[in-house]
Each structure stands twice: as structure tokens, then as C-alpha cells.
């Protein structure tokens, strides 16, 4: 038997009702903050993620699903419109055009910023508030709450600085929106962990301090940390190896190295959060697993989730657009892990079950036709109808109607068709009445709980 690939899973009803619930609530809440939906492709050029998420991150160095796109032959146009990204389309030094390497997206921000640049959204001079929902792919070791195909609900605010995109009020509004959203779907007991990871201005000084502090203990640390200390010391803070933790805990804190503007920005975000009563804790070690973050970085964690306790994460990425060859377009965004969000819900799928209003039971030859016509009329009037089959005996029809939880069974036999009035059985009470065709819909609706 062929099974779903390791780390992927099928989402079946009734559980899908929970997924629809969190997605619909996200659309409603994001709408209140004037966000609009964007949909970008699942497949992107691998270099997009190498340049944005970063070569040194676990996501890019270990977890990408990528492959050379040999099927299309040589690449003709590539991603010309976004400046530096068209490199793969050019012939190499040896004059040979190589196939483009494609990747399944491991996260949403890079694709959204690519689209922002590609479609020159900066030209409007306005803030763009965009959201997206969909599957992401990372070749991780599967466990509860961690999959190789998982779903994210993502939102980004991006625009030229003149539109206010750098303002701390954008950060605070986004965090407040998340608090509002979690409240709306009934998730309580979350913790907002907040940090500032600084900017291009203060990061080099901090990296230097980190390298200096790491130098004496480096031989005791894991191989990844030893490499990162040289290539990208900030990533050391992300190390999960238990033996390394006491060393990491004593390292200098980014917060002590922020330059004046980053410090003021971080303070302003905190003041605004206090003003709107969104609680938070400072986590000076929070750096997130992606390289593009600047200034505000955050995660919402939840106790009910065990080891994989981050429901969502995000942060600011003021230099990302430029590093992808785009205009100056600072931004901030987050990604909610939908799989974990659903795990943290206190609601059950049964609470969202929506049984049909009526089961139509055609009785005997020729009645399928009558039932099909009646079903069409009723559905036009908003009645949820499940259709039986004329080959079923009445007993089987009524049993099926009960099994699927229908509120009413409508019996369609020759006599009913002649009289143009149908026997309607209330399956909860057993009460049965004859109802003229014209009154059927209102009669069925009237009994809705
Ligand atoms: P990231 O894109 O790494 O910032 O992750 C944002 C959120 O996506 C995390 O807080 C998780 O809730 C979720 N997430 C990340 N990786 C996975 C995964 N492999 N399986 C399930 N959820 C994930």
C-alpha cells in the first residue's frame, strides 16, 4: 500500500472544520486591520531563500526540498525583473547555461517580498499589508507539532520608509492584532516573547563581542556552533544542543549593543504594547531561525504544545528587499504555524459539525428524479440537503438519515408527488407532518437549532 510521505499528513473531516475555523477567523480579524490577501507560488528559485533566509540557517543548509529544473531545458528569461535574482539564468563563466534550481518554499516572507519587488508595489508609496495562507516545506525530523509539510498563516507589512514602514507603531499594531486573533479563536495562556536583534549598524559590534566571548569556550561547543562562530555568530544563540546552553547563557546580549535608534525603536514598541495592554516578556536570546530579521523579533509560545511550543514567530526585516535587489522597503511580518495553532485550540471538531438540514428519501422507481428536483429547489433556498436513493427501503433511508445526523427526513413517494406535499419526519422527536411543497423550506428552516 502506498502511504502519505513521512512528515506529511492528510487532514480529514471533521478536523478540517477546525482548520476552516482558524482560517476564517484570521481573514475576519486581518480585514479589521485592512490587510489583503496575496498568493505566491509554492515553487521558487532556490537562490531566493539562500539570499533571504540565509545559507547558514538550518532551514536553507539542511531542510530545503530543491532540485535542478532540467525538464524545461535551459532557462531563457529567469527572474529578470528582480535585479540580482536573475543570475541563475545567465551562462556561467564557462559559458554554459545551467538549469535553474527550484525549491519548495520553506516560509512565506521571501516569496512575498520577491512579489513586492517584481510587481513594483513600492511605486504606490503606500504601506502594503498582505496576508497569505498555505503549505510550507522543510525536511525536518518529524515529531508531534513538526512536519515536513506544514501550514502557515502569514502576514506582512511592507512599504517605503515615507509610508511609515519603519515606525514602531507598525510592530505594535501587528502584535496587538495577533493578541486579538488568539483571543478571537479562544486561545489563552500564550506568552509573547520579545527581543530586538538590532540592525546593520550595531550588529557588527555585537558579532565581534560574540566571537570574542565564544573564543575561549569554542572547543567545548558543538560542531555547528564552532562553524557559526566564524560565519554567523548570532546563529549560535539558536543552538539547541543541551551541553552548549550554559555557555550560551553567559554570552553578551544583543540588547546591550543596540545603537540609539534601535534602542529607542524597541522602547517605543514596548510602550505601545503597554498602552494597548498586550503583555510580553523580554527574551534576550530570541534570534529566530532566519537571517533577515532586524530590530523587533518575537514569538508567541504556548504551554500546551510541549517541546515545539512556538505557535508563531516573526519580526522586522528592514534590509530584506534591498538584499534581494529591490528598493528600500522595510517591513515586518509573522507566520503562525497552523498545525500547532489547531493543537492549542480548546475547541473540538465536533463543536463545528454541521449536519444536513434534510435527508431526502425517494421511495421506489422513478422517485430519484423527483427527489433531484426537490433537492435543487431546497438548496436554492439555503437548505443543506443529503440525497438518498430510490433503491433504498424506507427503513434504510431513515437509518442513514439518523446516522449522518440529519434533522429531518423528507419522504418522496408517488402519493406525495401527486399531492405535491411531502411527509417530513423530525428525526429528533419522531414527529411526522405533511407539508405542501411551497412551505417545505421554511418549515425545515424553522426547526434549525
Ligand atoms: P518560522 O517560519 O520558522 O519562523 O516558523 C513560524 C511558525 O511556523 C513556528 O512558530 C511554528 O508554529 C510553525 N512551524 C515551523 N516549522 C514547522 C514544522 N516543521 N512543522 C509545523 N509547524 C512548523
Word description of this protein:
The chain has 449 residues and is of the alpha+beta class. Helix content is 33%, strand content 20%. It contains 15 helices and 16 strands. The protein has helices spanning 16-32, 46-54, 58-62, 109-118, 168-184, 203-215, 223-231, 245-249, 260-275, 320-323, 338-344, 367-380, 394-403, 414-419, 440-446, and strands spanning 36-37, 43-45, 66-68, 101-104, 128-137, 149-158, 190-196, 281-282, 294-302, 310-316, 331-337, 358-362, 385-387, 408-412, 421-426, 432-436. The strands form three sheets. It has an eight-stranded mixed beta sheet with strand order 1-5-6-11-10-9-7-8, sandwiched between helices. Strands 13-12-14-15-16 form a five-stranded mixed beta sheet, with helices on both faces. A three-stranded antiparallel beta sheet has the order 2-4-3. Strand 15 and strand 16 (432-436) form a beta hairpin. Helix 5 (168-184) packs parallel to helix 9. 37% of the residues are buried. It binds adenosine monophosphate (AMP). The site of adenosine monophosphate has 18 residues, from strand 6, strand 10, strand 11 and helix 11.
Largest sheet: 8 strands, mixed
- Output mean pLDDT: 92
Strand coverage percent: 15-25%
**Radius of gyration, in angstroms, nearest whole number:** 28 Å
Question: Helix segment count?
Answer: 15
Structural class: alpha+beta
List the strand order in the largest sheet: 1-5-6-11-10-9-7-8
Amino acid at each position: 500500500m502506498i502511504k502519505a510521505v513521512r512528515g506529511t499528513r492528510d487532514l480529514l473531516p471533521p478536523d478540517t472544520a477546525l482548520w476552516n475555523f482558524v482560517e476564517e477567523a484570521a481573514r475576519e480579524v486581518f480585514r479589521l486591520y485592512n490587510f489583503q490577501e496575496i498568493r505566491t507560488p509554492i515553487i521558487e528559485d532556490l537562490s531566493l531563500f539562500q539570499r533571504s533566509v540565509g545559507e547558514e540557517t538550518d532551514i536553507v543548509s539542511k531542510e530545503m526540498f530543491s532540485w535542478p529544473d532540467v525538464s524545461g531545458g535551459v532557462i531563457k528569461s529567469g527572474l529578470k525583473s528582480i535585479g540580482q535574482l536573475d543570475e541563475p539564468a545567465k551562462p556561467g563563466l564557462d559559458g554554459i547555461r545551467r538549469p535553474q534550481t527550484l525549491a519548495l518554499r520553506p516560509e512565506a516572507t521571501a516569496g512575498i517580498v520577491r512579489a513586492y519587488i517584481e510587481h513594483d508595489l513600492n511605486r504606490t508609496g503606500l504601506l502594503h499589508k498582505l496576508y497569505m495562507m498555505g503549505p510550507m516545506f522543510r525536511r525536518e525530523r518529524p515529531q508531534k507539532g513538526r512536519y515536513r509539510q506544514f501550514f502557515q498563516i502569514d502576514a506582512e507589512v511592507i512599504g517605503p520608509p515615507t509610508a511609515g514602514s519603519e515606525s514602531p507603531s507598525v510592530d505594535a499594531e501587528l502584535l496587538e492584532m495577533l493578541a486579538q486573533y488568539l483571543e478571537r479563536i479562544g486561545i489563552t495562556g500564550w506568552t509573547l516573547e520579545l527581543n530586538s536583534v538590532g540592525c546593520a549598524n550595531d550588529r557588527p559590534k555585537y558579532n565581534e563581542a560574540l566571537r570574542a566571548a565564544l573564543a575561549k569556550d569554542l572547543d567545548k561547543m558543538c560542531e555547528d556552533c564552532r562553524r557559526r562562530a566564524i560565519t554567523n555568530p548570532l546563529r549560535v544563540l539558536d543552538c539547541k544542543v543541551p551541553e552548549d546552553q550554559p555557555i550560551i547563557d553567559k554570552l553578551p546580549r544583543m540588547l546591550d549593543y543596540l545603537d540609539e535608534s534601535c534602542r529607542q525603536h524597541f522602547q517605543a514598541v514596548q510602550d505601545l504594547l503597554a498602552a494597548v495592554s498586550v503583555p510580553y516578556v523580554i527574551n534576550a536570546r530570541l534570534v529566530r531561525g532566519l537571517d533577515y530579521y532586524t530590530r523587533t523579533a518575537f514569538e508567541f509560545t504556548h504551554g500546551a504544545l510541549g517541546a515545539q511550543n512556538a505557535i508563531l514567530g516573526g519580526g522586522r526585516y528592514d534590509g530584506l528587499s534591498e538584499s534581494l535587489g529591490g528598493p528600500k522597503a522595510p517591513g515586518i511580518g509573522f507566520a503562525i504555524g497552523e498545525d500547532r495553532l489547531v493543537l492549542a485550540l480548546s475547541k473540538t471538531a465536533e463543536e463545528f459539525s454541521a449536519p444536513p438540514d434534510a435527508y431526502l428519501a425517494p421511495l421506489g422507481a422513478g422517485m430519484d428524479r423527483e427527489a433531484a428536483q426537490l433537492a435543487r429547489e431546497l438548496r436554492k433556498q439555503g437548505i443543506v440537503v443529503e440525497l438518498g436513493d430510490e433503491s433504498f427501503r424506507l427503513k434504510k433511508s431513515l437509518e442513514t438519515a439518523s446516522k449522518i445526523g440529519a434533522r429531518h427526513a423528507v419522504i418522496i413517494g408517488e402519493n406525495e408527488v401527486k399531492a405535491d406535499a411531502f411527509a417530513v419526519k423530525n428525526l429528533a422527536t419522531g414527529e411526522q407532518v405533511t407539508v405542501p411543497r411551497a412551505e417545505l423550506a421554511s418549515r425545515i428552516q424553522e426547526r434549525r437549532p
